[in-house]
Amino acid sequence: MSGLFAAARHRPTHRQVWGLATPMILSNISVPLVGLVDTAVVGHLDGAHYLGGVAVGATLITFILWAAGFLRMGTTGFAAQACGARDGNRLRLVLLQALWLAVLLALLVWLVNEPLLRAALHFIDSSEALLEQARIYFNIRLVSLPAALGNFVLIGWFIGAQRGRAPLFMLLTANLTNIALDVLFVVVLGWGVAGAAWATVVGDYAGLLLGLWLLRPVLVRYPGVMAWGDALRLRGAAPLLRVNRDILIRTLALELVFYLLVLQGARMGDSVVAANAVLLNFLMITSHGLDGLAHAVEALGGHALGQRNRQALKRVLVVSTFWSLVVGAGFVLTFNLFGDWIISLLTSVESIRDVASTYLPWMAWMPLVAVWSYLLDGLFIGATRARAMRNAMLLAVLFIYVPAAWLLQGAGNHGVWLGFYLFMLARGVLLGGWFVWLWRRDRWMHPPV
Q: How far is CA 373 from CA 148, 321, 378, 401, in A?
């Protein structure tokens, strides 16, 4: 693979990567900033159960949204390859089929939301006051589910079409609306946890409407026909459905890890689960920032596959790896210098501050461990190699995280974060090994679907 590193000197690829990554990093950073505002606003209410309730309720709704992440990831790879092949008909069909799947999924969740909520809260050993706030937050957030899932599809499709500014405008609209309404509903009107949830609902629908309006310029560039009948009947959607199935399984396994992390913290008391919620905001900032570069890999890597251009893929991989490490190191420096200050902004409850500061070093150094899994996820998504992603995730969860969580129970919350470290490291090692194996056998340029 020595030829990969010689390609790093190709300057146009640096501009291409950052041309896509910059708007995606800005838009992605705005997502956890909303979480920071939610945490900061609710964290200043009188009682840890408010912040803990938002943490639990947001984790439950995020479980559903992340489980539906295949709507974004599955759409990106196919849209990127359709653009590389200049196939406007296929580009439209991918969009319509993915939007239809989003509608069907939202209807399904609405039908089963009550038993889903009861089952999830049954295993959380926290105070009734905390659980009641979690129920309030969860039920209100369900109102925006169709918009949230539709946004996933549109963002994935725009990324695949190398239109990074469209997701930026969508997410900024949704998140700035959310932030403004957070302050209005919670601080000014005093709606508490319900106000934070309603702010997100309005923001999600604002982003969806803007995204639909931004479709036209891309469709004009790639002429084709809208096959509405084929889309509604899901004709020719077998590859998309297979990829989405594998990504769904992969995401459910990942969500299991986060649920267990919250569950372990909840059993140590309200202050610990609230402190872990504060610290997870650091992880969300890291992941959304590094995902901006991963999105560039998805779009450019998928485009290169559509063209069957091996050299272009080499350049994209080297440049994106270099900049991912630079950005990851930047997060490490920032968190080590300003981590305690960030915690103080997020909550005024002294017990939560103290616990969060104790475990801050785990999050401060996490970016250098997590960077590999984010980068390689982008590479595999662009190649629509969802089966490999699924298998790597299952191996990391079943053979690394679960045994570690069990064996480290006696280490308290330090054991919780150590197990998570090992899990993130295993993801990168497994995906990296699989990529190297395929590349050396000249099989990467032939997508499996």
A: 25, 11, 9, 15
Q: Please give the structure tokens belonging to residue 271.
A: 């202050």
Query: Please, what's the b/e burial string for 2-39 (b: 16 or more CB within 10 A of its CB; e: otherwise)?
Result: eeeeebbebeebbebbbebbbbbbbbbbbbbbbbbbbb
* pTM of the predicted model as reported, rounded to 2 decimal places: 0.74
Q: Is the pLDDT of residue 2 over 60?
A: no
DSSP H helix total and E strand total for the chain: 19, 0
Q: Residue 215 corresponds to which tokens in the numbers above? A: 């479709």
Measured CA to CA in angstroms, residue 52 lies from 39, 184, 281, 296, 383 at distances of: 10, 21, 14, 35, 39
DSSP one-letter code for 125:
-
3 state SS for 167-197:
HHHHHHHHHHHHHHHHHHHHHHCCCCHHHHH
3-class SS at 222? coil
Q: Which two tokens stand for residue 10?
A: 């190709």
Contact 342, 309 (CB under 8 A): no
For 228-285, give the DSSP string. HHHHHTTTT-HHHHHHHHHHHHHHHHHHHHHHHHHHHHHTT-HHHHHHHHHHHHHHHH
**Angle CA(407)–CA(408)–CA(409) in degrees, nearest 5?**
100
Instruction: Check if the beta carbon of residue 178 is closer than 8 Å to that of residue 148.
Output: no
CA gap 56, 62 in Å, rounded: 10
The tokens of 249 are what? Answer: 């399984």
CA atoms within 13 A on the CB side of 264: 26
User: What residue type is 65 in one-letter code?
Assistant: L
- Residues 389-442 have pLDDT tens digits of 999 999 999 999 999 988 888 788 888 899 999 999 999 999 999 999 988 887
- Decide if 393 contacts 306 (C-beta within 8 A): no
Is 110 in contact with 166 (CB distance < 8 Å)?
Answer: no
pLDDT tens for residues 163-204?
Answer: 878 988 998 898 889 888 988 888 788 787 888 889 889 999
CA dihedral 319, 322, 328, 331 (to 10 degrees): -90
